């Protein structure tokens, strides 16, 4: 049996190397929050989970994987567009191993932020721990493919980074500590500083191609509209203004990093405006509802509040811009991803 296993393992390894050498981008490596978490939170003690129905009802096989969506998320779609796998597996999922992770791996954790205190709110993986997992992954990849081939993958991979929304909505605007320390403009600058430190950290570890995603129109998320009673559940424009200001600073950071770090190619991924268009004029894009999500009443439900037995959960998530009160539906993810592939990511295709 052992004599048969050795050549089989060699064949699998060879196929991975061939696939990598034939692709412009050999792997997708993901850091971030629930916008890109493909299931890491399933394996830590937190309430920020989605590995149960009705999540995943439109995912292949109808499986709830831990993605905060009815189906696939942008990192999956970007991986597929790059000619890699149609899904990017979670690093902590024991169903996968280094042969799977060689072409795509996700370290993202729903509920986290650039600010370490954000991850403490619902006990999720802080960004520094995502980096530690990445270092561990590097060692496994080098043991699997050898130093030279592993280094090539790590240098030429596309690093998707989507994080920041929780720092504002879960932390700054919800808890008193950061508001007592910073004005909102100062907090934006604080987060930008942390983002810069993070990029420089993974750059020092070999990352060269990256995308930094800005925050969405935060005031138009169903959960925020629900609490905006005084304005009849309209978008909270204060939050949207903060999002635009922050995104402008993040875009400036991208330009600065490209100037300062030799060999770095980082792009700013702007999902704000395309999502706002879907929210403001849903019928133009084939949607029927953009104020509430598909799950439950759609006003406040996410994670465990998305009850599979709720009589209010919609049957067709494609009619909704949002899946739950915080996260886009798969159809929305597809539209945002298609936009980014034609703009920010075009150079990587």
Structure commentary:
The structure is a single chain. By secondary structure, this protein is an alpha/beta fold. The protein has one domain: Rossmann fold (3-Layer(aba) Sandwich), CATH 3.40.50. Helix content is 44%, strand content 9%. It contains 13 helices and seven strands. The chain has helices spanning 2-21, 74-81, 98-101, 116-121, 127-145, 147-156, 165-172, 176-181, 184-204, 222-227, 237-260, 272-280, 330-342, and strands at residues 28-32, 104-106, 158-162, 209-213, 265-269, 289-293, 320-322. The strands form two sheets. The chain has a five-stranded parallel β-sheet, sandwiched between helices. Strands 6-7 form a two-stranded parallel ribbon. It is globular, with a radius of gyration of 20 Å. It starts with a helix and ends in a 7-residue tail after the last helix. Mean pLDDT is 92; it is low at 1-22.
Low-pLDDT segments, ≥5 res: 1-22
Termini separation: 42 Å
CATH fold-level label: Rossmann fold
CATH class: Alpha Beta
Helix content: 40-55%
Strand order of the largest sheet: 2-1-3-4-5
- The structural class is alpha/beta
Given the structure, what is the number of helices? 13
Q: Which percent range describes the beta-strand content?
A: 5-15%
| Mean pLDDT, all residues | 92
List the main descriptive attributes of the protein structure presented here.
single chain, two-stranded parallel ribbon, Rossmann fold, 7 strands, alpha/beta, 349 residues
